[in-house]
Amino acid sequence: MELIFALVIGALTTSGVYLLLRARTFPVVMGLTLLSYGVNLFLFASGRLSAGQQPIIGSTEIYADPLPQALVLTAIVIGFAMTAFVVVLSLRNLADNEDDHVDGCPPVKPADNKQEQEETGK
Amino acid sequence: MSLPLVVLLPFLGAIAAPLFAQGGRTAIAIASSIPPLIALAALFPHWATLADGGVVLHSYEWLPAIGISLSFRLDGLALMFALLILIIGVLIILYARYYLKPSENVGKFYSLLLCFMGSMLGIVLSGNLLLMLIFWELTSLTSFLLISFWTHKQDARRGARMALAVTGGGGLALLAGILIIGNIVGSFELDDVLAAGELIKAHTMYPVALTLVLLGAFTKSAQFPFHFWLPHAMQAPTPVSAYLHSATMVKAGVFLLARLYPALAGTEQWFYMVSFTGMATLLIGAYTAMFKHDLKGLLAHSTVSHLGLITLLFGMGTKLAAVAALFHVINHATFKASLFMAAGIIDHETGTRDMRRINGLWRYMPHTATLAMVAASSMAGVPLLNGFLSKEMFFAESLELNLPGFWAWIPPIVATLAGIFAVAYSARFVHDVFFNGKPVNLPIYPPHEPPRYMKIPVEILVFACVMVGVFPAISVGPLLFSAAQATLGGDVPDYQLAVMHGINLPLMMSVAAFVGGLLMYSQRQRFFRFHARFKEIDEKAVFEAIVSRFADLANRFTALIENNSLQRYVMLLVASVVAVAAAPLINLGIFIGDNGLTPVDWPTAISAAILVIAALATAVIHRERFTALVLLSVVGLIVALAFARFSAPDLAMTQLSVEVVTMVLLMLALYYMPSWTPLETSKARRTRDIILALVAGAGMTLVTLAILTQPFSSISEFFLENSKPGGGGTNVVNVILVDFRGFDTLGEISVLAIAALSIYAMLKNTALTPPPGDGQGHTWSREPHPLMLKQIARPMLPMALMVSAYIFLRGHNMPGGGFIAGLITSVALVVQYIASGMNWTQDRVRIKYHNVIGLGLLFATVAGAGSLAFGYPFLTTTFGYITWPVVGKFEVASALVFDLGVYLAVIGATMLILVSIGRLSPHSAIKSPRRNS
Predict the structure, then answer these.
(1) Closest Cα partner for B70 from B8, B141, B127?
(2) Which segments of B782-821 are extended strands (E)?
(3) What's the pLDDT tens digit per position in B637-695?
(4) What tens digit of pLDDT does each residue of B273-300 get?
(5) Alpha-carbon distances of B138 from B41, B58, B141, B168, B851, rounded to whole Å
(6) Are B34 and B13 in contact (CB under 8 A)?
(7) Are B460 and B325 in contact (CB under 8 A)?
(8) B446 preceded by cis ω (within 30°)?
(9) pLDDT of residue B888
(10) What is the pLDDT of residue B926?
(11) Where are the alpha helices (DSSP H) in B493-648?
(12) Partners of B731 in the beta sheet?
């Protein structure tokens, strides 16, 4: 079971990192989301794996570690806020610069071409 | 108490002084002179202790763990410097009153001057080396600000920057040196360091420590080859030049030599490094001073030369030489400060400092001329003035050095040569300025005497020169003895302060210097012609060139790393994590720990396989953005299932509801973006990325496997045991969130709120036009809101709200709570927006989500602060049981109020985020009936 869990985290990390290395905002956001899944599961794993031992007092004999669960719970919510922030940042960039590149290359804007034409036209 | 007060007073004055700036220059000058006068009075009672060779120590603990304490220590040496700083400081305050124009920012000037005074007192009175270093750096900073006081002058700004770079750099070297010394001694307390001289000198690190400390001292005291900053610091207002750059701050370096004399001096390395540096500085300064046409430039180079003289004396290593050095510190401070003030007066009254233009001033300002001539004579070393006495001692010591053969000739020859130059430049100062024909083309003509009180500080200092010169034993004898005692560690040699020691070799050297100097001055045109043959190095240009080269290098390095490409940053980040983590992982060897593996069941394995396939497929087909998004949601759902499978029901519910809002968010974003990513990267780049991603993924797999199979103990025992009795709830995760770690949660919902509000702010005045279709030839559906969805969604709302209320209320004992309930409510509301449209919903749900966020934070904070009213720490919770009519016995915890805050904050934040994005499209605005009307 541990091996499967570890492989899942590995797959999430691989896909996440690959997407983070893309040149446009949307794949990067998706990569970030995948990586968050991986990180949340990883944090959760620090409490080890157990079945049917939910940390509700009185429901079982042994309890799973509640602390990583509490940490991950807030991490999930904050992760959403962070993803939203990045998405909005890229939307704002799209609105202001008509560009969704994150590779540092200056975009070839149609507006620029037009300006060039105007200048040469003069 | 009085010693820390002495240091603190000028700083307090610095805060108070600008308040008097409105009252005019006189008011602020009086206000500024009060702190140093009180400080002088506070030092006075200690004299009795110091005269017997005692030490006053006032020590307070500050950071004992790193050996830094607020300890202030007064001995003879510290007293001598403190008196120089305070007395000359008061005179400068008076002088500056007349020097500054009414239109200038006098508040800033006096405030900085007092700050500097406090820092300088801090250096001399510190009983802890680290504390001293703090004040040391403060003097560099205040000096920087004072040099650049006239911020509109480019030369002033450059000169200030140069001074800061040189002295600040030296300060860093000094810090390193002090740390080494502290490491050797085991304490930074001055008493311990001074007592451990033998230990330090025998240590293998001594050469390094000495070199570093000397670097600090030499940069501060403008010793060759760091002397160039001092002449450029003359761009400062003249009171600053007189105070910082001749009388006090530049003496900090030689003070350090005197202070650490018992700990560091007496070795061969000390002798060679200090005395040869001093000798070089002495000669170079004296030679250059001769050729400066600028009045202050002449004085600046002369200061460099005299500082070299003092350094040389300390370097000689004999006890008498050290006494002579201390004596010269006093003498130089008095005559040089008065000369600077006189130069300032001349500049003030004629409008120029060029000695080729200011000639024959004797006729216009005889009073000032007399004062300046006496001071200049002292600088030249004329008998019956204080400069003569210390110079005689210097000549005598230069003959006493036990150097082998030919080398023994060098110090006396250098000393005599420097004496010749000193006489020549002093003669030039007197003759060029006050005689030598008529003034040439003065900006202010005719010049006349300055205001009466502007001359008083000069008169006092010149009077001191004469007094010390005629009655040395009475005037400074006790003070000098006490200072020598402190410098030499109690063992003062026999010396006599007398006007004349009879006809001896030093006197002959003086006579030679006079004859030579006057001869040189009379033949000055030849020397000027000779000097003009060499190209003068402009230190400022060289310095600027070096600085800009470094800046260039730094910029190129930055450009290499920071090229605006996120891909580059992520690549570097991941690659460095892999590189750092690789070695420990390889050393770990076996990744499966002692706990071994637990058996696998088929449903879990199949779900995991789906997750892995979906995750990898998301990456593979990411260019088809919509499809990739659907696959991404599959991943999220299975993650939620995984939480449920591994005993985390709260997490499963949270993940599930967050998944819904995340998908809505990404769908919304995708609506405005291109729906597919064009192929832009090269195949090599993609291969590199795949390899990097695979390495990162493999690393995470191995780390996770290693962690999962290790036995462990957790601090959670505490939470499990105390959840019910202490927090009043059986759902431990929820109790941790709202009770044990409530403060964390408060911080987290604050972050959530800030993120939501900044998203709102970012999108407030932004409009985005979505592409006309999905980019593959399909236009958007014309039907805005599907009928079926609309009809189902509306009745769902109350049910969903009821579920969320239920989840919220049971959260303390069963899976649920504020976070989850808030997310469920958000989902219920979002569904209405999707089904019926922005405008329809907004017209009915008239809630300002900002207010909801604020209310949530308010509830959470009030719930936490409530416990303060009962005398418990912030966020202490309590609980009790009440019996409701229908429900029965019901538990009420004060944490419920806190959880309500969480609930509201989550709803507000989530909805504000989604509504802000949803509102982006211009369509929703145009269609709004309310906005049209």
Answers:
(1) B127
(2) none
(3) 999 999 999 999 999 999 999 999 999 999 888 888 888 888 878 889 899 999 999 99
(4) 999 999 999 999 999 998 888 999 999 9
(5) 25, 21, 5, 10, 48
(6) yes
(7) no
(8) yes
(9) 58
(10) 38
(11) 505-522, 524-532, 539-561, 566-588, 602-620, 625-645
(12) A56
Q: For residue B321, what are its two tokens? A: 């030489």
Q: How far is B790 from chain A (nearest CA, A)?
A: 26
Average pLDDT (B920-926) is: 56
Amino acid (one-letter) located at B271: F
Q: Which residue has the tokens 């950071």?
A: B63
Name every chain B residue with its beta carbon within 8 A of the beta carbon of A20.
570, 574
| Distance between CA atoms of residues B34 and A43, nearest Å | 63
The nearest alpha carbon in chain B to A10 belongs to B697
Nearest C-alpha of chain A: how many angstroms from B733?
5
- Give pLDDT, residue B768: 81
Provide the 10 A C-beta neighbour count for residue B578: 16
Q: Which residues of B touch A13 (CB under 8 A)?
A: 693, 696-697, 699-701
Domains observed in chain A: 2-120 (1.10.287)
Say yes or no to pLDDT of A113 above 60: no
Q: Which pLDDT score is estimated for B928?
A: 38
Report pLDDT digits (tens) over B501-512: 778 888 888 999
CA distance A71 to chain B (A): 8
Q: Are B885 and B930 in contact (CB under 8 A)?
A: no
Instruction: Report cis status (omega within 30 of 0) of the bond before B225.
Output: yes
Q: What does pTM read for this prediction?
A: 0.69
- Are residues B815 and A64, on separate chains, in Cβ contact within 8 Å? no
Backbone angles phi, psi at B881, to 5 degrees: -125, 135
Specify the pLDDT at position B931. Answer: 37
Give me Rg for the CA atoms of chain A.
22
pLDDT for residue B929 is more than 60: no
pLDDT, tens only, B207-236: 999 999 999 999 999 998 899 999 999 989
User: Poorest-confidence range of B90-104, B217-231, B398-412?
Assistant: B398-412
Is A77–B654 a contact, with Cβ atoms under 8 angstroms apart?
A: yes
Distance from CA of A118 to the nearest CA of B (A): 25
**CB-based contact A91 B916, cutoff 8 Å:** no
Task: Answer for the pair B904, B822: CB distance below 8 angstroms, yes or no.
Answer: yes
pLDDT in tens, B823-855: 999 999 998 888 888 888 888 888 889 999 999
| ipTM summary value | 0.88
Contact A69 B650 (CB under 8 A): yes
Cβ burial B871-887 (10 Å sphere, 16+ → b, else e): eeeebbbebeeeeeeee
With contacts defined as CB-CB under 8 Å, which chain B residues touch A35? none
Residue recorded with tokens 């400066």? B292
Helix (H), strand (E) at residue B62: strand B56-63
State whether residue B362 is helix, strand or coil.
helix
Chain A 57-116, residues with CB within 8 Å of chain B CB atoms: 57-59, 63-67, 69-70, 72-74, 76-85, 87-92, 94-96, 100, 102-105
Tokens at B29, concatenated: 């000058």
